[in-house]
Amino acid sequence: MATNASGLFTTPTVPSLRGKIKPSIRIFGSGFRSPDGISKRVFCSSTFEGAEKHVGASPSESRAPRLVSKGCKLIGCGSAVPSLKISNDDLAKVVDTNDEWISVRTGIRNRRILSESLTALAVEAALKALEMAEVDVDDVDLILMCTSSPDDLFGSAPQVQKALGCKRNPLAYDITAACSGFVMGLVSAACHIRGGGFKNVLVIGADALSRFVDWTDRGTCILFGDAAGAVLVQACDSEDDSLLAFDLHSDGDGNRHLNAAFKESETDELGSNGSVLGFPPRRASFSCLQMNGKEVFRFAVRVVPQSIEAALAKAGLPTSSIDWLLLHQANQRILDGVSSRMQIPSEQVISNLANYGNTSAASIPLALDEAVRSGKVKPGHTIAAAGFGAGLTWGSTVFRWG
């Protein structure tokens, strides 16, 4: 099964059912819509190359949609942050900057820096989400670790699974999409539940980009912090489906504006991987994070409103139906720019940027967890969330909490 950018869940080609299902279903991005106008919250369809040529085809030539009755809902959240707090004044001692310069341009005043393992931080957030959801760790059948800074090059998800104490060896894997990662994780969880029969999926966003920041570059070192956040996505009846729609995109051409590329050593000394035969790579390493702030800002304020509006259209909802706008916490000016373009009042925008900075894949679940536990976000509230960043990638999803 796969998804496409329009938000449809697609399945491989299946044999014809010989006319048992009439070709009278119209497909929308938010699911199936029958001729009577009743939207059925099922994100699954059968699509194939050249489908438009088969409109009106005989039953033996058509391909029938495979209906999946399960929906999914977000029922628990949790977060964790490192104990080490670095203020703007602290940064001013090591780089040419000051609190006013940083706060005016970004809205950031503090950030947390990881000194322990990212896996431990992710596990702490996950356990809190499970506790809120009242789900036992052995009932989790999938763990999605959204991170671009794992403790292991091969991924941290299996280590999270081990540390949680999962006895049934559920599938666990990493999703690498930096600041867009958590939204991609939510959509992936929905795919696994609706098309794969999974019941309880842990989606964890955790990053420690402080590991890749150049602390002599005041243009980037002031922005990033470390954190972890998690949600428990659970299967439910289709009529109770709470993940209403999504919209996902990527543009590799924009990679030049935001990246942390693999970097080969230019020296002749023995590399850390023991290469002595005269061919690269001599040393396994990545460059520090490189970012063109002005271009990333222009990109975000342009594509994020478009993506959210597309997701709302697929869900059949107006902008006025949004209770909360929850954006990746990158820069307060971006939050303000997107909310202004969408005419969403600032009091409906969730922001904790001042306390944590840009925590990459952790920023959305971290902000959501604080908003839920403070009582700001209540069960039944409709949230439009959007992530954007490295790749370049961006995406949005519309869901109801609880």
TrEMBL record:
This protein's record includes keyword Lipid metabolism: yes
Enzyme nomenclature, EC number: 2.3.1.180
Domain Beta-ketoacyl-[acyl-carrier-protein] synthase III N-terminal: 173-252
Matches recorded under CDD domains: KAS_III (cd00830)
Signal sequence region: none
Reaction it catalyzes: malonyl-[ACP] + acetyl-CoA + H(+) = 3-oxobutanoyl-[ACP] + CO2 + CoA
Domain annotation Beta-ketoacyl-[acyl-carrier-protein] synthase III C-terminal: ranges: 312-401
Annotated keywords: Fatty acid biosynthesis, Fatty acid metabolism, Lipid biosynthesis, Lipid metabolism, Transferase
BP terms from Gene Ontology: fatty acid biosynthetic process
PANTHER family assigned: 3-OXOACYL-[ACYL-CARRIER-PROTEIN] SYNTHASE, BETA-KETOACYL-[ACYL-CARRIER-PROTEIN] SYNTHASE III, CHLOROPLASTIC
NCBIfam families found in the cross-reference section: fabH, PRK09352.1
Family statement drawn from the similarity comment of this UniProt entry: Belongs to the thiolase-like superfamily. FabH family.
Identification of the protein by name: beta-ketoacyl-[acyl-carrier-protein] synthase III
Gene source species: Prunus persica
Lineage of producing organism: Eukaryota, Viridiplantae, Streptophyta, Embryophyta, Tracheophyta
